[in-house]
């Protein structure tokens, strides 16, 4: 479902390649964790999946990335967005509404979900991720963990095949972090969404991800089952 073939990318203003000859396949339904040092290329890897590279950042790229049969270079960002939902690090910058239900509504309307289906979609996703009680809340009054849940719910409501998240627990305490991962597990198991998540907290990935990639200096350094990969580090 996701195929990197000899994919390399260098940002326009950078001397070095941020990603170097990546060859990798990810199948439908996987739960993949990504770790690596700061500057290793983790965010760039996620940008290659959702089309931010090459459509937003300029640079030199070689090779190709295919997502659900779409070549990311040939496809438009909105075509890709139907396959790949993204939750960025800066969720405050990502969210556009002041009330929770409007945030979910916005995406559904934007992606042309028929009006008669929208109410049910909102109710279903809030229930599924266990935040029905937040429906009418003002987003600015929510805790960091609650905001993160809303951001994920808003993207999951679009029913993407793949969900890409960049450090979703960066600002969260251990308990909220665990709740976010339980939510991701549920989306993976019940909605069969492929999860790809960049995370600093290795313990969370060793518990929740089924596959772990370590990215180092723009290359896939290790790739395997979490306990095997962590044994080798
Ligand atoms: P992280 O390491 O958590 O991915 P960064 O601080 O590296 O976050 O990057 C945050 C933002 O700054 C991203 O949008 C990234 O593309 C951009 N960025 C990172 N490094 C550079 C750089 N050398 N020049 C310009 N923008 C950069
Ligand atoms: P990570 O997410 O692992 O911290 P990034 O993917 O953000 O790493 O960055 C990989 C490399 O690309 C780093 O050397 C970073 O400085 C560089 N980089 C990231 N974004 C930009 C950008 N917008 N312009 C130039 N260089 C960038």
Automatic annotation (TrEMBL):
Per the UniProt entry, the signal peptide is: none
Transmembrane regions listed in the UniProt entry? none
What is the recorded membrane topology of this protein? Peripheral membrane protein
> Where is the protein found, in the record's own terms?
Cell membrane
Recorded GO terms, molecular function?
ATP binding; ATP hydrolysis activity; ATPase-coupled transmembrane transporter activity
The record's Gene Ontology cellular component field reads: ATP-binding cassette (ABC) transporter complex
Keyword tags:
ATP-binding, Cell membrane, Membrane, Nucleotide-binding, Translocase, Transport
Family indicated by similarity: Belongs to the ABC transporter superfamily.
Q: In its UniProt entry, what is this protein called? A: ABC transporter ATP-binding protein
Q: Which organism is it from?
A: Ruminiclostridium herbifermentans
Please tell me where this chain falls within the complete protein, as first and last residue plus total length: 1 to 233 of 279
